[in-house]
Amino acid sequence: MITPGYRRVNVTNPYPSTMGTCTIVAGIMPNVTEGCVADAATGVRLATRSDESDLRELTSLAVSGDRKAIESLLGQLRPMVVRYCRARLGRVSGHYHIADDVAQEVCIAVLSALPRYRDMGRPFASFVFGIASHKVADALRSSVRSAVPTQDLPDGPDEGPGPEETVVRYIEAEHARALLSRLPDNQRELLILRVVSGLSAEETGNVLGMSPGAVRVAQHRALARLRQMAELESIA
User: Fold this and answer.
1) Where is the RNA polymerase sigma factor 70 region 4 type domain (predicted)?
2) Where are the domains of the chain?
């Protein structure tokens, strides 16, 4: 389903039998704290040395059109894509209503681009997040010209959190989004890739054009800056 107010760009699927694998599943977005870096990577990180060769082989099979390899590859990538889009469009920019649509766009675009992909020695995740970054930027430009859609009334009783818990969650999310929005663009993007999406320092460096060591230093500085801003707010 396409969210009203957001125009989907149609792409040709080179592997029609794999279209079902583009369905996006919900992801959990951890809080932006230094201690959550390891937690954010659990289950979705592709950066361990033992996994890199497996992923490279899987990508090669997917590029050749192997259906099972394509399904497995997208299954590994989409949790990170969902986290990234929800962080960039939801937590940072407030456009929660289009985040999952954009994540779906990224999966389809990756699927469409697979036949043209060539391994240039960089992790495949950096290729994926390059696509994701462009899709998010397009969505942000489009959302400026679009009205926020009105949610339909639910068919049955709401079994989710109560109004008090909902308000608390909303305030916490708004506070985190406000803090992130005050960071320089490069620090905000780095934290989203490292903390929210769960990329390794090496993968993040490939996306941003930095060495792994520089990524770790920049991450430490960005988190220290966030803590400082939060402490100043608590004092005020």
Assistant:
1) 177-226
2) 44-146+163-235
Residue 202 · residue 217 · CB < 8 Å? no
Number of H helices and E strands in the chain, helices first, is 9, 0
Q: Which pLDDT tens digit goes with each residue over 184-233?
A: 888 888 888 887 777 788 888 878 888 999 999 999 999 889 888 888 87
Q: Does domain 44-146+163-235 have CATH number 1.10.10.10?
A: yes
Q: How far apart are CA 113 and CA 107, in angstroms?
A: 10
In SS3 terms, 103-171 reads as: HHHHHHHHHHHHHHCCCCCCCHHHHHHHHHHHHHHHHHHHHHCCCCCCCCCCCCCCCCCCHHHHHHHHH
CB 174 within 8 A of CB 65: no
pTM metric for this prediction: 0.57
Which sign does the torsion angle of CA 82, 83, 88, 93 carry? Answer: positive
What contacts 216, CB < 8 A, 6 or more positions away? 201
Q: What is the dihedral of CA 111, 114, 120, 124, to 10 degrees?
A: 30
- Are 78 and 24 contacting, i.e. CB atoms less than 8 angstroms apart? yes
Residues 30-63: tens digit of each pLDDT: 333 333 333 333 333 444 444 567 778 888 999 9
